[in-house]
Amino acid sequence: MIPNDIKITPELVKEHGLKPDEYQRILDLIGREPTLTELGIFSAMWNEHCSYKSSKKWLKQLPTKGERVLIGPGENAGVVDIGDGQAVVFKMESHNHPSYIEPYQGATTGVGGILRDVFTMGARPIAAMNALRFGEPTHPKTHHVVSGVVAGVGGYGNSFGVPTVGGEVNFHRRYNGNCLVNAFAAGLLKSDEIFLSEAKGVGMPVVYLGSKTGRDGMGGATMASAEFDENSAEKRPTVQVGDPFAEKLLLEASLELMASGAVIAIQDMGAAGLTCSAVEMGAKGNLGLELNLDMVPTREPNMTAYEMMLSESQERMLMVLHPHLEEQAEAIFRKWGLDFAIVGYTTDTLRFVVKHHGEVMADLPIKELGDQAPEYDRPWVEPAKQPVLDVADVPAPANYAKALLDLLGSPNLSSRRWVWEQYDHLIQGNTVQRPGGDAAVVRVERPNGGTAKGLGFTCDVTPRYVEADPYEGGKQAIAESWRNLSAVGALPIAVTDNLNFGNPERPEIMGQFVMALKGIGEACLALDMPIVSGNVSLYNETNGEAILPTPAIGAVGLMDDVEKTVGVAFANSEDVILLVGETTGWMGQSSYLYELYGREEGAPPPVDLALEKKTGDFVRDCVIAGRVTAAHDLSDGGLLVALAEMAMAGGKGARLLLPETEVPLHAFLFGEDQARYVLTASPIEASRLIVDAAMAGVAATAIGAVGGSELVIPGHLTVAVADLRERHESWMPSYMSAA
Questions:
Q1: Closest to 633 (Cα-Cα) out of 485, 415, 449
Q2: What is the pLDDT of residues 468-500, one digit of tens each?
Q3: Is residue 95 among the annotated active site residues?
């Protein structure tokens, strides 16, 4: 019997994010009242962020296996084979609540956490991305949050030394009280040198590595599992403080230690800190674990067991080491100026025992801490679908040039240069395709020399689509990621996801989640893009208003020869412009409707997955064969916005001769039909491509030629490329420089 240190009241249980029936489950499990430390451990392990208790049932239905998949969901990150004895390791994770409360530190620690997930597997990080969602620009807090988050992402990634190569930035009023900061990282390792978190062996030393433990980040995972209210600012102490220079040292020391052969198991101390890492390592290995907190390096005096177990201080790892290599391991970490402390041992008891000052502060069944976490089958209702919008209900612009300029200068379609120029996207010297195109491409040297491979990276989702129809919106997020990678010549090989939704206890929100996952799963199967890692972030709402459902997709593609990639820029005058794919002029939920008229109406464009695959395969083959000079997928803003982006990127205009069609001109130019691309090729090659496309069952039509300094549609639009660029580049700097 453990003597209790404090009376556990219903109020205290509620403060720990546990419901009365969940607390009763704890009492039944351990047969007594828990200590405060034990209550904290349960709250950490059983909150939404760590246990996935509302989402686990549906996550099990996602496709997670494939020929290339070496490690799927359940570890720190997913691992996918890319040939030549090499593998890519990647994951995406949220830091939403902390970034709204304390934008700079919330974003930095989001980046730091995802980088640790990658190098904990034994990989050296080679690329980072981020998907950022902010409130409407006029909201009083948006400017502050944008400024802090962007500075935090850049400050950590740049200092750590990983290129930030891509991402998304979007604005919508539904994020006014709850921004989204989704961080992605990828790394490389040898496919036969993957490190896992499963502890093995009895009596093996459990070693604490990295920075000291402080009181920052207390209860962070529990805070991330609750919605916001008017008192959210009081949660500032739950935001961790990051140190990218310490993390860089931790990376180098960890990789050196792994190479020494001393490591049996390794786990990042992320959400719920020492608690989650220790429990997961022991439970996965069917072992018990005993910790002596007197040995934990702390940076603040008189820390309690409760504080040490729940602290989310950054840049920390937990490892199980081979006993005979302890001294060698310690020497490596001391060399890098990092703490190294044996804080416990593995046991055969299947108990999680925590001691402090000679007293037992916790003694709990280790498997049940994770395995017996509540798992809910929450009630859900399928969201009502919006009707298909009749194009007759969408006004044509009085002036096409003005409409295009207004779209390019809108908050959501304007250039993100102000953002990505704060990130070092060239460090390590392997970035081939920079931010601003369809997907980033990073060079990967083969271990035995020869032609360098390429890895493509992209982030995508259109939350307005998901809100209007979660099933089609989920499919579209995968399909657009597929298009982005195909357009640069990369074969899409796998996906990580970051599923951001509101309160799952509301049936309509749970319905959004269920239907979005149904669409995502079907698309991943059809396009052979298994999901190998990911994160669920629920309770993203403030005072009862949820964010737009935002299942962000991070996708990775592979190129056999990185030199074969092409970008979006118009390359040569006289090149023929080809529109690939069918155009019906779908205007529902379009950027044209939203940005120019403030309307969020209609069903989103339907996604034909078989057509996506056929069209994407054709485009990718053309890129790899060197038959095209530029490629761009069509998404937000439709055909005319894509052509303007290609013109601005290449500094060249184009003259368009549009095909005869029954589709109204504004719908043809601004509609957002799926499975479409723009390609450019020499006149001779373009003729051949049209024939080959027809034989492949893919629509392809010549719609103009590159040349001059203006974008011209005779009789409808003439606008200088310089004017397009000026308008496109001006919104973000103007907004961010405003007081």
A1: 485
A2: 999 999 999 999 999 999 999 999 999 999 999
A3: yes
Cα–Cα distance for residue pair 237/216, rounded to 1 Å: 6
Q: What's the CA gap between 479 and 635, in Å, rounded?
A: 11
* pLDDT given at position 225: 46
Residues whose CB falls within 8 Å of the CB of residue 265, separated by 6 or more in sequence, listed in order? 195, 196, 197, 198, 199, 200, 281, 285, 319, 320
Check: CB of residue 586 under 8 Å from CB of residue 669.
no
What's the half-sphere exposure (Cβ side, CA atoms, 13 Å) at 596? 25
Cross-strand partners of 552: 498
Residues 305, 361, 210, 317, CA torsion sign? negative
- The structural domains of the chain, with segments of one domain joined by +, span 566-739
Distance (Å, whole) CA 264 – CA 469? 46
The number of helix segments (H) and strand segments (E) in the chain equals 25, 28
Q: What is the CA radius of gyration of the chain?
A: 26
Specify burial of residue 231 (Cβ count, 10 A radius: 0-12, 13-18, 19+): exposed
| Residue environment code for 130-150, b if the CB has 16+ CB neighbours within 10 A, otherwise e | bbbbbbebebeebbebbebbb
**One-letter amino acid of 714:** P
How far apart CA 186 and CA 495 sit, in angstroms, is: 12
Q: Are the beta carbons of 495 and 66 closer than 8 angstroms? A: no
Structure tokens at 355: 């001691």
Listed in sequence order, the DSSP H helices in 271-399 are 273-284, 305-310, 326-335, 366-371
Distance between CA atoms of 692 and 377, rounded to whole angstroms? 50
CA distances, 391 to each of 396, 603, 650, 670 (Å): 10, 12, 32, 11
pTM: 0.95
566-739: what CATH class?
alpha beta
Selecting among 16, 95, 425, 632, the annotated active-site residue is: 95
For the question of residue 716 being annotated catalytic, the response is: no
| DSSP, residue by residue, 492-550 | EEEEEEEEE-S-TTSHHHHHHHHHHHHHHHHHHHHTT--EEEEEEE---EETTEEPPPE
Nearest to 555 by CA among 46, 127, 38: 127
Q: Give the model's confidence band at 693: pLDDT under 50 very low, under 70 low, under 90 confident, else very high.
A: very high
Beta-carbon contacts of residue 728 (< 8 Å; ≥ 6 apart): 408, 409, 414, 415, 644, 648
Average pLDDT value for the chain: 93
Edge-first strand order for the sheet with 180-190 is 69-71, 78-83, 86-94, 180-190, 124-134, 164-171
Angle at 689 between CA 686 and CA 692, to 5 degrees: 160
Q: Which two tokens stand for residue 684?
A: 């001779």
Q: How far is 153 from 18, CA to CA, in rounded Å?
A: 32
Which amino acid does the sequence have at 212? K
178 φ, ψ (degrees, to nearest 5): -165, 90
Q: Given pLDDT bands bounded at 50, 70 and 90, which one contains residue 160?
A: very high
Looking at the DSSP bridge assignments, the partners of residue 444 are 453
Bridge-partner residues for 536, per DSSP? Answer: 499
460 touches 168 (CB < 8 A): yes
Percent pLDDT > 90 in the chain is: 85
Alpha-carbon gap, residue 101 to 228, rounded angstroms: 10
Of residues 49, 172, 356, 632, which has the active-site annotation? 49
